[in-house]
Amino acid sequence: MSRPNASDFPQEALDIYDDYAHGRVNRRQYLKLLAGCAVGGLTVETLLHGLSPNYALAQQVKPDDKRIKAEVITYDSPKGAGTMKGLLARPSKGTQFPAVLVIHENRGLNPYIEDVARRLAVEGFLALAPDALTPLGGYPGDDSKGRALQRKRDKEKMILDFVAAAELLDKHPQSTGKVGAVGFCFGGNVVYHIAIRAPKVLDAGVPYYGRQPDLEEVPKIGAPLLIHNGEHDKRVLAGAAALEAALKKHKKEFKAHVYKDANHGFHNDTTPRYDEAAAKLSWKRTVDFFKAKLVDAKTK
Question: Which of 208, 210, 217 has the alpha carbon at shortest distance from 246?
């Protein structure tokens, strides 16, 4: 089964999908706007099907892959939901590993994010991917329903749920105590918040196309950052220059990459916004960054 690619769709259709995925237009408006892109042999039905996530494509690492061990765990989040669930994945061999928190998009812990956690386990990390929809029954198996559920949760409490997860990884018996975080879209923004709120816990942060934090919070950031954005993601790029200036002003360690011709969501290999070249390069940079920042010299 071939993976979707942004080059197969008009840019206008990809932008409309981004508006729909982030709740800026409802489904009726989405279909109406797609009708304007139905030219040159494309139909609304073809566009609708092609733009929808296909989670059959999300499995780069199968749940029963012998290289890893994965399980659903429950952890305490007293300032957030109270009790949270998440997928914990680790290498099948070894006793302690550098840890990475994996933070999903605006729709709960879907199969793509679960696979990202497994990919990190293959790379030698203890990876935890919490589901912010836990108090509402968990990811419902449908992204549209997941987005609707996530909008019902208080964002502050969700952030605290992920801070609690980072703290869990910091003290976990299978963790070396070195903790990174990678997040996508909503999760990218949460990475910034964890870097600000838990500077003694987080050792490295990788926000993928996440909305920037308030600039007055930048002095509180305590971890080096690796920032990934797409060239066509005008909404997120609008705040990128100001954040980078603030990071430089306050002498924070960071590196920012903008991937040519890539859209918001370019790493998600289940939607047509996926850009194979950008996804693979950014992921290599991410893994290398975590290995550089989280792998203690004594364990190399």
Answer: 217
250's CB contacts (< 8 A; 6+ apart) are 218, 219, 221
84 and 37 inside one domain: no
C-alpha torsion 93→96→100→104, nearest 10: 60
Tokens of 293: 């920042």
The CATH number of the domain holding residue 121 is: 3.40.50.1820
Range of the domain at 32: 6-51
Report if pTM > 0.70.
yes
Both 22 and 111 in a single domain? no
Residue 1 belongs to some domain of the structure: no
pLDDT of 174-213, one tens digit each? 999 999 999 999 999 999 999 999 999 999 999 999 999 9
Same domain, 35 and 176: no
| Distance (Å, whole) CA 268 – CA 12 | 19
Listing from the earlier edge strand, what are the strands of the sheet with 175-184? 68-77, 82-91, 126-130, 97-103, 175-184, 204-208, 225-230, 254-259
